[in-house]
Amino acid sequence: MEFIFTKKAKITFAIFMVVGLISLFFGFGADESEHHSRFWANILINGFFFFGISLGTLFFLALQYATEASYLTVLKRVFEGITQYMWVGAIVLILFFASSSLHLNHIYHWMDAAATNEFVIESTIGTDHPEYVAEMVDGAVENKHFDSIIAGKTAYLNQGFFWIRTLAYIGVWLFFVRLFRKRSLLEDEQGGTKIHFKNMVFSAIFLVFFAYTSSTASWDWIMSIDTHWFSTLFGWYVFSGIWVSAMITIVLLTLYLKSKGYLKEVNKSHMHDITKWMFAISFLWSYLWFSQFVLIWYSNIPEEVTYYMTRIDHYKGLFFGVFAVNFAMPMVILMSRDSKRSIGYSLVVGMIIFIGHWLDVYLLVMPGSVGAHWHFGFFEVGTFIGFLGLFLFTVFRSLTKAPLMVKNHPFLEESKHLHI
Amino acid sequence: MADKVIYATYDDEQVLLRGAKDLVSKGIYIRDVYSPFPIHGLDPVIGVKHTRIAITAFIYGLIGLSLAVYGMYYFMIQDWPMNIGGKPNFTLIDNLPAFIPITFEFTVLLAAHGMALTYFLRNWTLPGVKARNPYPETTDDKFVMELHLHDNHDQTELELEEMLKATGTTRIEAR
After folding, report:
1. CB contact under 8 A, A298 and B97
2. Which of A14, B102, B109, B129 is 20 to 30 A away from residue B146, measured at CA?
3. What is the count of residue pairs from A and B with beta carbons less than 8 Å apart?
4. What is the C-alpha to C-alpha distance for residues A154 and A145, in angstroms, rounded to an integer?
5. Structurally, how many domains does chain B consist of?
């Protein structure tokens, strides 16, 4: 069955995007924080959150191929549709990183030459662009803004290497998005098992690459905001957030499509299975959130606790509230089999923890960017709505480009008869 | 009249499943089925209700959680206030992160053990209890259906056996 992107939906998402643009425009003007940090942090939050959803879905799709799982074959086109947003998401992120590199924002402190160079040419102090030098030369004096901790990290955190890594991650991930989509459409035409078995190899290669790069990408893009601080668990924590957001999106989108009469083959058992994933990965996320927190809280080492000090001093209610909701809501409500099979429960819980995980990304980015001077207002909500519109518009458009049900997949028949 | 039990043995679980559907549609009540593994789709056919063991697990878990929190509160804060590594003590809420791992473990411990014990008690399969399996080969490769005469008043023993034979059973025995 072909998916039809109705005019009504198009107009709704267009309105969302317009709301987003208006809030970005007025937000930039109203933003009084230094270097417009609040504005840029909002771009990063939404850029990363929605990019993460499509990345998590790509990971989940690859997981299905690599494990030769049959039970969600009927939902394969939904997964592929969500992964297609990555093209747009990548552009947003690259534009953001480019603006950081050009010093339009100061979200990444380590990109500032003032922090990493020990000396400065005396005659240039006070001008718009003081000249910083790494070694003592004639006319140079000690740089007062020098930060020895950041300077010690320049072997990894420098602009050249950052861009090489960023482009490598995004390039390879997008390569796999394209590869899986192309092969899936090819399978519709050709059939047979050749494509299926080769997909398994490709997805295994992707998963190995993803295992490394999901960690390093989260260090580069998110953890380096709080440049002084580091956590060895951070990559996993961000990855679990990405994964659970992807599962929530899959559940909500499937429920929407079913309510419109599509995906007739998707039965209660499939819904049970994907809601189970949403339920389970919520625990993975909570577990990693708490593991990172309790180790740092217990050892109480000054250079580690700063991260949580900022959050607990200035964001206390939000910080613990987000954890409580994202952990307790799915646990209490989705524990029983019946609620996992009910549309109402999974819809309500899904929508709440979708916002919850967006707020989690907010708490990853904001404290390091604006510190105590944070706001949560029309600007944040408007930007979120704008990006949501962009995301849904892209996903819906890509859903129209191929039949919603795969053909000739070797596991399709088995998947249609899923019964648990 | 004393109750009589009819056992019908099958070699294949699909034959048994089809037979069970057929019998139930004719109004026969099947008391139980013995099988070496769970037969998918059989439960609703013979009217086995959803297990309530999940509810007991939840209750045991809740008991474990409250016991662990109360225990640590009593040991570490009330009875003999402890100061470990300069952590804020004397209040439960300030010490809570340190208590979470133990609370979690204790919850799991009680839920798991309580659930296993409840299962053994309910089935009366405690260690040392004699097994009540009419046919030991149902733990290997045979499937046995159990019918009671008392459950099926409309049929005589002979009629029931005729109906069972039609479903493809390999052996019928009345005890």
Report:
1. yes
2. B129
3. 19
4. 16
5. 2
Q: B150 and B93 in one domain?
A: no
Residue A15 tokens read as 């309105």
The pLDDT score that the predictor gives to residue A88 is 96
Angle formed by the axes of helices A234-259 and A268-299, to 10°? 160
B69 within a domain of the structure (yes/no): yes
Q: Please tell me whether residues B70 and B101 are part of one structural domain.
A: yes
Question: What single-letter DSSP state applies at residue A104?
Answer: S
Contact predicate A322/A356, CB 8 Å: yes
Q: Which of A51-65, A130-144, A168-182, A322-336 has the lowest mean pLDDT?
A: A130-144
- Dihedral class, residue A35 (left if φ above 0, else alpha if ψ from -120 to 50, else beta): left
The alpha carbon of residue A291 is apart from the nearest alpha carbon of chain B, in Å, by 10
* Residue B147, domain member (yes or no): yes
CA distance A164 to A157: 11
- The answer to whether the CB atoms of A297 and B97 lie below 8 A apart is yes
Whether A419 and B54 lie within 8 Å, measured CB to CB? no
DSSP helix, strand, coil percent of chain A (3-state; round to 5): 75, 0, 25
What distance in Å separates the CA atoms of residue B160 and residue B152, rounded to the nearest whole number? Answer: 9
Asked if the ipTM is above 0.90, the reply is no
Give B97→chain A minimum CA distance, Å: 6
What CATH number is associated with residue B168?
A: 3.30.70.790
Same domain, B58 and B117: yes
- Cβ neighbours of B107 in A, within 8 Å: none
Residue from the list B41, B54, B100 with its beta carbon closest to the beta carbon of A294: B100
DSSP A384-412: HHHHHHHHHHHHHHHHHTS-SS-SS-TTH
A133, containing H or E segment? strand A132-133
- The mean per-residue pLDDT over the stretch B128-152 comes to 88
Range of the domain at B117: 53-123
At A4, is the secondary structure helix, strand, or coil? coil
- pLDDT score of B85: 73
CB atoms within 10 A of CB B124: 10
Q: Characterize B13-26 residue by residue with b for buried, 16 or more Cβ atoms within 10 angstroms of its Cβ, and e for exposed.
A: beebbebbeebeee
Q: Is B58 on the interface with A (CB under 8 A)?
A: yes
- Domain co-membership, B75 together with B22: no
Residue A283 is predicted with a pLDDT of: 96
Q: Are residues B30 and B91 in the same domain?
A: no
The answer to whether residues B32 and B57 belong to one domain is: no
Output the pTM of the full model: 0.90
Token output for A368:
């390091």
Chain A residue closest to B52 (CA)?
A336
- Record the tokens describing residue A33, joined without a space: 């924080």
Reported as type and span, the H/E element at residue B9 is strand B5-10
